[in-house]
Fold these 3 entries.
Entry 1:
Amino acid sequence: MSAPAAVLFDMDGTLVDTEVLWWETADEVAAGLGHRLTGADAPEVVGRAVADTAAHLIAVTGRAADALDGVAAELTGSFFRKVDAGAPLRPGAAALLTALERSRVPFALVSASPRSVVDAVVAGSLAAAPFAFTLSADDTVRTKPHPDPYMAAATRFGVPASACVAVEDSPDGTASAHAAGCAVLVVPSLLPVEPARGRTFARSLEEVDLGVLSDCLRRPDPEIPGPKPA
């Protein structure tokens, strides 16, 4: 079975355990605006770009639209400080990246986080990972859930998106990769992701290897690799 032409990894919640840090950041900023986050806010916070979350906080707190840039800056600064203090890798992430490197399968980072955050994580928790390149929310006109980031990544590799496997954890990230035409391996973290054709599900990166990634390209219907739950 042919290996993927490239593997495109999401960052937050997929390779590094930063989704909780992002939620804490958004909750702190929301509290300063007089709002406490609940599960109802999750779809507008988890896996979303800074601008999207800032716009949501402005809307739910009734703040003026001209406060958007300030809220976005506060979110970015606070999140950067948390990530810069250390973001642990997700289980199985280091082993999977090492296996891909040994197999000479190229891989890149495709994130909806700002460039400052991506660079901090890549210089810290992911310093040992030889990414071909990294894409942040600042590198495309539109970020996730639009297909632009994954289309741009495939273009940089010089391969069709359909020859790539994207590894994602969130609904928005999955939608982005799916719309770009990638096969998608979904390892959910905080939010569930709906099954769909072209999406394969795993419970952890610990059960993912090159064979699973290769199989994603051939598996038309959603399926969970590995042992089935009892």
Entry 2:
Amino acid sequence: MKVTAHAVRSGDWWSVDVPEVDGLFTQARRLDQIPAMVAYAGELLTDIPAAEFEVTLDYDFDPAARREIEEVKQLNAAAQRAVDEASRQSRAVVHDLRQRGLSVREIGVMLGITPSRVSQLGKDKATA
């Protein structure tokens, strides 16, 4: 069962309501506790096993902080994409340079990485 847990900070706790299930209100000290709390409470109210609850968390918080959080999430996603692309290109370059007869030590010097990393990248290309 797909539900949305709406959380609002109330002192040291998060007050949570779930509009899809009549009467489902709960609270938690931490955001990461909310999905389990909602699933457990949902099971008590509906007889649907807790494991069958798919909980989406939506929390009300300071709008400026929410914008900053979203910006950081976008930056982290972009950074991960850049890391993935750098890894892909590194594997391709290592493969190409190995095909040209260069040693892992030579490639390591050229790329500024250890010979062990060159070997790893070469193996990754072979299995990719």
Entry 3:
Amino acid sequence: MATKAYGANAADKPLEALDIERRAVGPHDVAIDIAYCGVCHSDLHQVRSEWDGTLYPCVPGHEIVGHVTAVGDHVSAFKLGDTVGVGCMVDSCQGCPSCDEGLEQYCESGFVGTYNGKTDDAPGHTLGGYSQNIVVKDKFVLKISHPADQLAAVAPLLCAGITTWSPLRHWKVGPGQKVGIVGIGGLGHMGIKLAHAMGAKVVAFTTSESKRQDALDLGADEVVVSRNAEEMQAHANSFDFILNTVAASHNLDAFTTLLKRDGTMTLVGVPEHAHPSPNVGALIFKRRSIAGSLIGGIAETQEMLDFCAEKGIVADIEMIRIQDIEDAYARMQKSDVKYRFVIDNATLAA
């Protein structure tokens, strides 16, 4: 099935219009016309070969919202016209017990990414959501119940939403807890919204005084400028959990010392250069932990989508045409977006 897409043929080439092929719908497949696709910083890293192993042509995009146009003979959970989503995974190994628990992202044999993952389909690797349509195995398709006028803002939930939801759920964030969110950006703004909706007291950390009101508007109970030593010291030894969304190398000790005994700080951002080694004493004397978390499994992602639909939670977005993707990348590198770009995939036909 021929479809229009946008992608790059080399790391030093701009994204451009491409004609690609999608496989025929198999017995367990779902075909989706893509209405919107979020723009993730990982798209930029991968298409520019800033991460190892980029396969070209590279068509990014793993925050996909659209409508079902065909289903395989063995598909019963979806029907034509359903509003659905596709996140970061489109396949995994078979028979791994963890997959039965919805934890495909931690499968020992790995998972197949929505783009740049090895596949039998031409051209030998997956091609993502900067395209008109996609064909996905049914168990990796997600049901979306948000109203139609929110669908564009739902798209980033498929990555930014689940990336922050998964650690908040795993470390059982809820009422009575004091939770810190470090960084107010594409991930951090979702962390604030979700932790607030879960009933926690939310403290947002930013390096910029200008973001104080923004964080409060997102649902933070309090905002700390992390460059202000007095503001930081006022919260020493007081957090049950801190979600650190910052993808730049920084001093982790400034935040671990804010944790209570047995508190955990979870990292979800991957810095270009390693963080300075943490102070071990600050960890062992209060049994504090530094952990990491990836995206989330399919069952967990569905749980997040249902929770967000119930609570009316979506991402804060700026819609763009696909033809403006290079400008969006340049602005994203300067953090010049509040807080996620989303492509109107109808513009692929222009």
